[in-house]
Automatic annotation (TrEMBL):
Residue ranges constituting the Orn/DAP/Arg decarboxylase 2 N-terminal domain according to the UniProt record: 24-266
Keywords: Amino-acid biosynthesis, Decarboxylase, Lyase, Lysine biosynthesis, Pyridoxal phosphate
Pathway: Amino-acid biosynthesis; L-lysine biosynthesis via DAP pathway; L-lysine from DL-2,6-diaminopimelate: step 1/1
Native organism: Flavobacterium stagni
Annotated positions of the N6-(pyridoxal phosphate)lysine modification: K49
NCBIfam families: lysA
Enzyme Commission number, as recorded: 4.1.1.20
Protein name, as recorded: Diaminopimelate decarboxylase
Stored InterPro entries: Ala_racemase/Decarboxylase_C, DAP_deCOOHase_LysA, De-COase2_C, De-COase2_N, Orn/DAP/Arg_de-COase, PLP-binding_barrel
Active site: C328
Needed cofactors: pyridoxal 5'-phosphate
Similarity-based family: Belongs to the Orn/Lys/Arg decarboxylase class-II family. LysA subfamily.
Top enzyme class: lyase
Length: 401
C-alpha cells in the first residue's frame, strides 16, 4: 500500500488503526498453492488464531481455503463465516473433553494430541474418524515460546508412543484418518522441516486408513529489509517430490495439508499510531505514541522486530528514536531505531502487523481496542468499529453497594 493511502485511512478512521491489504493476502495464498501445484489434492487450512476477523475469514473462504481452529469459539466463528464443517480442522491443546465433543457434534475434523483423550474419545465415539497430532521431537522456530515440536513441548503425542496409539485404535475400533505435526513458527531451515516430514511419513506407514497428512506450518516471513524467510518455492519442490513418492508407497491418494497463519496475513497488515510526545532525556529521544502493548504485544512478548516508518515525513532526515507506548509500565516497541525525523502529531506505521496483533490485543489500562480496515479494490472498508466506553461496561454487573 502507498503512504498516501495509509495516511488517508488514518485521517478517516483515526489512530491507532489496523489496516489489512487484501491483495497481499491473496498473493501469499497463491504463492503457497503454486509452490505445491503438482500435488493433486492440496488443502490450505488458514490458522485463524493469527487474525480472526469475520471479513478476513470470508476472504479466505472465497479463495478456497479451509480453516485451522484451536477453540470451540473459533470453530463457531468459522461456521458463521460460511465454512462448511468438512473445511474445518479442530486442533486444540488441553481443552475439556466437553469442548472436544462439541466440535465433533458440529461435524468438523477432530485432531487429538493426548493419549488419554484419544482413548476416551475412541471409547465414546468409535465411529468418528480423528487425526493424530504427533510430536516429532524436532526443535524448530524462532523463539522458545513458538517452538512446539521439541521433546519438552506440551503439544502432540510423542513418536515413541505410537505403539500406544495403535493399541488404543485396536481396542476401540476407532479410525485414524490423518496424521499431523507442527514443529514451530519462524522456520529458517527447510531441511529441518523436511527432516521432520520424514518422521511423519514413517509414522503414517503404521496407519491403514489415512486420508490426509498435515504438515503444519511455521513458515517465516521477512520482518525487515534483507531478512531471512522460508523459501516456499524450494520447499514446494522438495516436499512435493517426497510426498508423491510416499503416496505410491502408501498405495492410495492422500491430501497434503498445511495450516499457515502468519505466512498468509503478516505482511498484509499495517498498524498506524499517532505520536503524542517527543521526549528528550539525557541519553535517549523517546517517541511516545497513542497505543501500547495492549494493541501490539509481540515486541514485548516475543522480542519481535517490526519495521517502523514515519509516513507523515517519509523523506525526513533519519534520527535515532526509542518508540514507546502509553501503558504504565515498560512498553517499548523499538530501541534506538533509525526513523525519519518525528514530530508530535506524526503517524507512524508498523509493518508486518497482520498476524497476532489484533488477535492478541486487550483492554489493559481500560483502553479501547482499535478499528480494523480491509483495503480491497483500491478502497478501505471498515471491518471492525473502534470500541467505545459502552463496550468496556458490556457484561459487567453493577452491584448496589
Amino acid at each position: 500500500m502507498q503512504t498516501t493511502e495509509l495516511l488517508a485511512l488514518a485521517e478517516t478512521y483515526g489512530c491507532p488503526l489496523y489496516v489489512y491489504d487484501a491483495h497481499k493476502i491473496e498473493h501469499q495464498y497463491q504463492r503457497l498453492t503454486n509452490a505445491f501445484s503438482k500435488v493433486e489434492s492440496l488443502r490450505i487450512n488458514y490458522a485463524m488464531k493469527a487474525l480472526s476477523n469475520i471479513s478476513i475469514l470470508k476472504l479466505f473462504r472465497k479463495m478456497g481455503s479451509g480453516l485451522d481452529t484451536v477453540s470451540i469459539q473459533e470453530v463457531q466463528l468459522g461456521l458463521h463465516a460460511g465454512f462448511t464443517p468438512d473445511k474445518i480442522i479442530f486442533t486444540p491443546n488441553g481443552v475439556s473433553f466437553e469442548e472436544l465433543e462439541q466440535a465433533a457434534a458440529l461435524g468438523v475434523q477432530i485432531n487429538i494430541d493426548n493419549l488419554s483423550v484419544l482413548e476416551h474419545f475412541g471409547t465414546k465415539h468409535p465411529k468418528t474418524p480423528v487425526c493424530i497430532r504427533i510430536n516429532p521431537h524436532v526443535m524448530a522456530g524462532g523463539n522458545e515460546n513458538i517452538s512446539v515440536g521439541h521433546i519438552d513441548s506440551k503439544f502432540g503425542i510423542s513418536i515413541y508412543q505410537v505403539p500406544h496409539i495403535l493399541r488404543i485404535v485396536e481396542n476401540t475400533g476407532m479410525t485414524i484418518n490423518g496424521i499431523h505435526m507442527h514443529t514451530g513458527s519462524d522456520i529458517l531451515d527447510i531441511e529441518v522441516f523436511l527432516y521432520a516430514a520424514e518422521i511423519l511419513f514413517d509414522t503414517a506407514k503404521q496407519f491403514n486408513n489415512l486420508e490426509f497428512l498435515d504438515f503444519g506450518s511455521g513458515f517465516k516471513v521477512p520482518y525487515k529489509k534483507g531478512d531471512i524467510e522460508t523459501n516456499i518455492e524450494e520447499l514446494g519442490k522438495k516436499l512435493t517430490k517426497r510426498f508423491l513418492a510416499f503416496e505410491k508407497e502408501y498405495g492410495k491418494p492422500l491430501t497434503l495439508a498445511f495450516e499457515p497463519g502468519k505466512f498468509l496475513v503478516s505482511e498484509a497488515g499495517y498498524f498506524l499510531a499517532k505520536v503524542n510526545v517527543v521526549k528528550q532525556t539525557t541519553s535517549t529521544v523517546f517517541a511516545g505514541i497513542d497505543t501500547g502493548f495492549n494493541h501490539l504485544i509481540r515486541p514485548m512478548f516475543y522480542g519481535s522486530s517490526h519495521t517502523i516508518e514515519n509516513i507523515s515525513n517519509p523523506k525526513g532526515k533519519e534520527r535515532f528514536y526509542t518508540v514507546v507506548g502509553y501503558i504504565c509500565e515498560t512498553d517499548t516497541f523499538a530501541n534506538n531505531r533509525r526513523i525519519a525525523e518525528i514530530n508530535e502529531g506524526d503517524v507512524l506505521c508498523f509493518k508486518n502487523a497482520g498476524a497476532y496483533c489484533f488477535s492478541m490485543s486487550s483492554n489493559y489500562n481500560s483502553r479501547f481496542k482499535p478499528a480494523e480496515v480491509l483495503w480491497k479494490d483500491g478502497q478501505g472498508h471498515l471491518i471492525r468499529e473502534r470500541e467505545t466506553f459502552e463496550d468496556l461496561l458490556q457484561n459487567q454487573i453493577l452491584l448496589d453497594i
